[in-house]
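Entry 14. Ran structure prediction on the chain below.
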Amino acid sequence: MRSFFWGIFLISSGLFLILKHYFNWNIPTVRVLIGLFLVCLGLSLLIGGVGYRDSSNLIMNEGRFHVESGGKDYNIIFGKGILDFSNMQPEDLSKEIEVNTVFGSAEILLPENAAVRIKANSVFSSTQLPDNSNLSFGDRTYLSDPQGKGEADFTLEINTVFGNTQIRH
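Output, structure tokens:
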């Protein structure tokens, strides 16, 4: 849903100014406009039109990234996102993919036939690796190799700060 903040604010401010001059009200204009600004901002937050989302960023929103080629860095900030690599072939993915989660939640679905080297960095957070081990603070390198290939098809760098990231095959 798009943000209706400026529309609500400008219409209500215009109505106030028209009524003030039409009825010759003696009301402090600046105080009322500041109040209208705060009320419209609150309504916009309640409606849910504050978040931002594009093909690789999700801020104060939630959604699912449909990955067509894995050459991007993905950022989830104050939100919840799902990155679905499960339908991708390992040769179609970029050699290095970075996922940053800050004050949010991320779920990463890996292809079943791909060997993935996961470099996980966590700060006051929870990063759950495919073997169900958790990383709360520090860094760890993990090779998720369900087919027993012995070498990684691509590298996934996970940075989680004050958030939660789950990685599954």
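The longest helix spans residues 5-23. Will compare against last week's run tomorrow.
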